[in-house]
Amino acid sequence: MIPSVNTTGNATSSNLKNDLLLQALRGEQLSRPPVWMMRQAGRYLPEYMVLRRKYDFFTRCQTPELVCEITLQPVDIVGVDAAIIFSDILVVPQAMGLEVLMEEGKGPSLPAPIKSVDDLKRIVKPDVNDQLHYVMDALTLTKKTLDGRVPLIGFAGAPFTLLCYMVQGKGSKTFDEAKSFCFTQPALAHQLMQMITDTTIEYLIAQSKAGADVVQLFDSWSGLLSPADFEAFALPYIKQIVAAVQPHCPVIVFAKGSWYAIEAMAATGAAVGVDWCIPPAMARSFAGKHTTLQGSFDPAKLMMAPADIKKEAHKMIDAFGVQHYIANLGHGITPNIPVDHARAFVDAIKEYNAK
Ligand SMILES: Cc1c2[nH]c(c1CCC(=O)O)Cc1[nH]c(c(CCC(=O)O)c1C)Cc1[nH]c(c(CCC(=O)O)c1C)Cc1[nH]c(c(C)c1CCC(=O)O)C2
């Protein structure tokens, strides 16, 4: 029996058999960090591909039984210490009135993006328990089906990243049109992001009530902003969301590429996700002693031989330290990763104890 795994459960962990993730978020002493992987439920799993061939993307997202099955796959197959609900950040723009398509091989596309005051009139603040009830139903079913095996993570996109898709209308390496929108029509950009923020606060609180033990806010594109522009266009909304949601459940903020804002994000009281572009010791010095950090294995390293993955994963824990730390990737796992390699990463973290 690993001493750090709570088998008796307690009130704050709602009778979880493995609550390492929650312990790490509370800053408790652990003998190894918890591990999960961003985008762990996805195309690198053959079991996911079977369901992907049968049902289109939003059918998968909107059917609680399918969500539950997909969410549990990485728990069963690679043995991660947490489940993250299968959904997408783009269900929020959808609920706010924008059409979102997920096209085979092309990623998301929004045929009628926001470019003007008139476009903004098409955006509504939804009743999340109505428009997104399927997410809450899926969380409740998944929480029940997990039967306390591991904690369940809910999530949402941060306002700047959602603006990127709502304005650009599709994925982009630069999101230049979305950034220009912020710089040339700042009042409109702020109005849109405030609407997203208000929706996201209600959405994440509803997720917590429906069964999410923790929620993660993904600001996947904030790293495209300068430090000053991050402070103007991303940080104010992250702060509002963390302040409103944190009384309900722990929050992890992952603002990819925004290493310069780690101190500001840590100041919100949230745990902070980091990518591989900052040395762990520097991330720790920005975050301070008491903030839980998460990350930061480069997913491309999962193509290395399993023995090398293990060495690299152990080096990562050596650098971050075991306390106040959640082992994860620095961004989502990609479809080309062999399942055995994903498992080698997870096993390496679990074996750290014995090292
Ligand atoms: C930017 C972003 C999106 N969605 C998400 C983000 C933030 C995280 C990040 O930065 O990677 C978040 C997301 N999307 C998905 C999850 C599920 C939970 C998980 O396992 O982490 C999560 C947390 C499922 C998904 N969302 C999507 C898939 C692939 C759909 C498929 O083809 O089966 C999955 C499993 C589709 C999606 N959705 C999005 C894109 C760009 C794409 C296409 C690219 C891709 O295929 O990976 C938008």
From TrEMBL:
InterPro entries cross-referenced by the UniProt entry: UROD/MetE-like_sf, Uroporphyrinogen_deCO2ase_HemE, Uroporphyrinogen_deCOase
Subcellular location: Cytoplasm
Pathways involved: Porphyrin-containing compound metabolism; protoporphyrin-IX biosynthesis; coproporphyrinogen-III from 5-aminolevulinate: step 4/4
Enzyme Commission designation: 4.1.1.37
Pfam families membership: URO-D
Key words of the record: Cytoplasm, Decarboxylase, Lyase, Porphyrin biosynthesis
Molecular-function GO term, any one: uroporphyrinogen decarboxylase activity
Swiss-Prot/TrEMBL site (Transition state stabilizer) positions: 88
Major enzyme class: lyase
Residue span(s) of domain Uroporphyrinogen decarboxylase (URO-D): 34-43
Reactions mediated catalytically: uroporphyrinogen III + 4 H(+) = coproporphyrinogen III + 4 CO2
Residues holding substrate: 39-43, 58, 88, 165, 220, 331
PROSITE patterns per record: UROD_1
Protein family according to the UniProt entry: Belongs to the uroporphyrinogen decarboxylase family.
Binding partners and assembly: Homodimer.
Known function: Catalyzes the decarboxylation of four acetate groups of uroporphyrinogen-III to yield coproporphyrinogen-III.
The protein's name in its UniProt record: Uroporphyrinogen decarboxylase
Species per Swiss-Prot/TrEMBL record: Ferruginibacter yonginensis
